[in-house]
Specification:
The chain is an alpha+beta fold and 186 residues long. The chain folds into two domains: 97 residues, Peroxidase, domain 1 (Orthogonal Bundle), CATH 1.10.520.20; 74 residues, no CATH class. Helices cover 57% and strands 13% of the residues. It has eight helices and four strands, in the order H-H-H-H-H-H-E-H-E-E-E-H. Strands 2-1-3-4 form a four-stranded mixed beta sheet. The longest helix is centred in the first third of the chain and has 17 residues. It is globular and about 65 Å long. It starts with 9 loop residues before the first helix and ends with a helix. 20% of the residues are buried.
């Protein structure tokens, strides 16, 4: 499942941090990682579910009913989290809490996630080479890369990490040249 690097609600961080500390103390963060990745994949495949959870007019009981099939087969920590979010009227935060948890779990293993945007799809070897290059620039870390395609880049890549973008695309270089020419005195 392709997870986009995106900003998440700050409130979700508190729930995720508490859940991560609970799981890490019991040695179960890895098992939850697999479950949460699958749940987020389910959100991505179920069109409109995340949007429905964020509808202000939707009562919390209805949100809970939407998530009931998930809750029935969830692990105990996920059931408890969902119960707490329902009690607090914050079930809409569930996808963001899971995303934050996964980011924390990856950080604990020194894994950095990035999206590589390119004009053409990259094959596995190209992504592996790029991941090795990024790991050399950030010693001690490994990279998990996903590829997104944007034909408007023309050539080159844009690497998007949380809080950082490295743009080596031809489009970026042309835009920079255009800005320089526009700023030059006549």
């Amino acid at each position: 499942m392709a997870r986009q690097i995106r900003q998440l609600p700050k409130a979700a961080r508190v729930y995720a941090k508490t859940l991560f500390e609970y799981a890490a103390a019991r040695g179960g963060a890895g098992a939850l990682r697999e479950e949460f990745t699958a749940v987020l994949a389910g959100f991505a495949q179920t069109k409109g579910l995340e949007r429905a959870l964020n509808m202000a007019a939707l009562p919390e009981e209805t949100r809970a009913q939407l998530l009931r099939p998930l809750a029935e087969r969830a692990s105990d920590p996920l059931k408890r989290l969902m119960g707490l979010l329902e009690l607090k009227g914050r079930l809409a935060l569930l996808p963001a809490v899971l995303e934050y948890f996964l980011r924390m779990e990856e950080a604990s293993r020194k894994v950095r996630r990035a999206v590589v945007v390119s004009a053409q799809p990259l094959d596995a070897d190209q992504l592996a080479t790029l991941a090795e290059g990024l790991a050399e620039r950030h010693p001690g870390y490994t990279y998990s890369l996903e590829n997104a395609v944007d034909a408007s880049l023309i050539a080159g890549t844009r690497v998007e990490e949380v809080g950082h973008v490295t743009d080596t695309s031809l489009r970026h270089k042309l835009d920079g040249a255009r800005r320089s020419l526009a700023a030059a005195p006549l």
